[in-house]
Every structure is written in C-alpha cells, then in structure tokens.
Amino acid sequence: MKTLAEKQIFTYDDITRLPEGNYEIIDGERYDMTPTGFEHGEFEWRLAEFLNRHLKDKGYVAVGEIGVLIKRKPFRLRAADVVYISKEKALQKPKGILEIPPDLIIEIISETNTAWEMTDKVKDYLSIGVERIILVDPQTQTVSLYQKGKKEAILYNFDEDVVLIEALSVKMKELLS
C-alpha cells in the first residue's frame, strides 16, 4: 500500500511519458484497472471488428483501453474499451492519447465495475462532447445508450437493434454469440 508521501500526482505535462499499464487518471491520481477476462476481450474485439467492417472508409476504430483526455487541469484521463472517431473529426489516424472527443465509445461492463464508476465515466465522456456512449452489460444482457444533449439513457436488451452510429445498428445477441 502506498503512503501519502509516495503518492504520485500526474499532470497534463506528463501525458507523453505516462507509465505503461491499464489505469485511469482521475484528478491527477492513478487508479489501476483490474485485468479483464477473455469474454470481455472477445466482446471488445467483435464490436471493433464490426465497426471497422462497416465504417473503415468513414473513420478509425481502436480497441483496448484507449486513452481519452477529459480535462487538462486537474488532469483527468479515461481508458475506453472501443472507440470510433470519424474522418471529419480526425483528418489523419490519431496517435497516442485522444485529445478530441470520439464520435462513439463502447464500454463493456465487467463484474468488478460499480454503477457509480460507470456513471462517472459516462458523465466524463458526455462532458467533452462524445456523441454516443454505449454500455454493454453481458451479465444482464442489456445495453445502455447515452447521447450528447439527451438527459435520458435508452435501455435495450441483447435481442433489440441498437443504433451504434449513423444508420449502423446491430443486435448484440447476434454479434456476441
């Protein structure tokens, strides 16, 4: 366990030299993330592959705890499971941590995630202008869709069509089975 004297506070100036690993930075403090399981990783891959197949000419898809800058001060950095960013927003394929909001972020909820953690993460994504945030919960087989400018989330089950982005929809049951 770290003592108070050992706690490292990160700032935006550290962005190019952050240590390797899976973590988020919330108000300068590093919060390590529990490694995900095989099923979680497979869901990420299937969703990213689906998006890439249908949107590769329109934008860029990445998977695997992609760094998304929320705030410079205090430094706040989130790690997203799957992101899609259109070529309208990013003329070239992004490198490093995203400093512009993606069009779509998909998070796979793990058994270790709490409701308040996911709500806080969604609020952060909406605060920077992410158009759509989709939370996929394999345990309850539900999907929650949050949209920029809308106060209510839309809840779907795995049998229903979920619009991921611009006329691209999918039934999670078909994609993830």
Q: Quote the distance from N terminus to C terminus.
A: 40 Å
Q: Could you say how many structural domains there are in total? A: 1
| Gyration radius over CA | 16 Å
Strand arrangement, largest sheet?
3-4-5-6-7-8
For the sheet with most strands, the description reads: 6 strands, mixed
Task: Tell me how many strands there are.
Answer: 10
What's the pLDDT, averaged over the residues? 92
Any idea what the shape is?
A: globular
Task: Quote the beta fraction.
Answer: 35-45%
Low-confidence runs: 1-5
Q: Regarding CATH, which class?
A: Alpha Beta
How many helical elements?
Answer: 3
Topology at a glance:
Blueprint: E1 23-26, E2 29-32, H1 38-55, E3 59-71, E4 76-86, E5 104-108, H2 115-127, E6 132-137, E7 142-147, E8 154-157, E9 161-165, E10 168-171, H3 172-176
Parallel strand pairs: 5-6
Antiparallel strand pairs: 1-2, 3-4, 4-5, 6-7, 7-8, 9-10
